[in-house]
Amino acid sequence: MNIKITSRKFKAKDSLKTFIKDEIKTLEKYFSEILDCNVILSFTHVKDSIKTAEVIVKLPGHTISVEVSTDEFEKSVSQAVEKIQKQLIKLKTKRVDKKKVASRKLKPKELNED
Question: How confident is the model at residue 57 (pLDDT cuts 50, 70, 90)?
Fold first, then answer.
């Protein structure tokens, strides 16, 4: 999985980058076919110091995008990763359910052929 971190209008510290990479790598537990992951960090309001993290995960046939704003980048990234985890679990269960339905449809045909 390729992880690309972009910080807009500021330079992200190395500690923040390693935190983001560790958080993103946890997504592989839920879905092993992740192709790319882009993380975009930005300030939305300079006075209020609202920090936004946008996480875009590219999968075969799907793209999942989440944007979260909080007062710290670490919180924003953690919350975005949690939302993506939920979406990955939902996507994976849909795929498994489709396979189960397809296998159920094949079994009666196999019984008729005998």
Answer: very high
